[in-house]
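Quick start: what a row looks like.
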Amino acid sequence: MFIAKDFSRFQNLFVSQLKNMLSDNELGAFILVLANSQQDAFLKNALQDELENTFTALKNRFSTGKLQAPQDDIDVFKQLLDIELENVGLWKYRAAGDWEVACNSMRRLRPARASSQQFSSIQQPYDETRFHFNKPFLKPEILWEEHYRGIKLRVLFNKFPFSDYHLLIVVSPEQNSSQLLTGDAHRYVFSLVAETACVLPGFGVGFNSLAAGASVNHLHFQGFVRQQYFSIEKDHWSHNGGKLEYPLEVKCFADTGSSWAYLEQLTAQDIAFNCLYRGGCCYVIPRKYQGSVELPDWLTGAGWIDVAGAITVSDEETFHAIDHQSVIDALVLLSENNS
């Protein structure tokens, strides 16, 4: 069993683990729980009382100089002091033609990591001295950790989530592998998604190569539970048998053999790519390296969810301003075919 036997048990585990993280001297955990609580009304209602009590305790410690935390977390907390919890709204969504736009105010507080860096190759050696998922301080952020189908999996919460029930799935964390997709990992995740979607409807997985939005160079995937289709899954696109051309090149595969042959080719050519594993398919999107083209501010650090047609912004003005054509124009800039 991967995580839970059904969605109800999954939700209960998700909430209970978030509650267990809260403490009056763990600022990073508070930020993580707050960010996750804003996904929907169910999570907000389940976590609101504990969050408010913890926020009060943290403010008291902060005012007396007793709150010790990394500077990134202190910077986030100072911004939260200015806006107060009741002004951190639930995620909002709107359609912009074929595309989905979400407003998630917590995302603007997220410190930049490797997703803002420029790369010369998608193959970089694993670096023990940099951030990775074996850091001891991440232990409280683990939702679930077990061997499944002969492979050790570590599933963590995303500190600044941008998809429904957003998970970080680290495959064989003890092997200290870099963020370079292998055939074994690809085949394993392809099967994992197909099996898990039967008990957690809407379960899927995204993958960012380095130079394509990956912010940690330690082999991991991003899980989610979302029943609504992404734009990239719609029937009218040519990669799904329709007549319309997607703004980016997309290959849709229903088997691991042909999909890995293509992914192996991209890797050999050092082409950055994103993947979406969903509904028995793997969508592969080759794209330009992050930082190699000038993108709108709202698409900086674009990863798998952006190229799948779901754009996340952090302010109301941008949320309402983005339209169908502006998404097309921005995604075209990332296309390998756009010179």
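That is the whole record. The first strand starts at residue 92 and ends at 96. The two ends are 46 Å apart (CA to CA).
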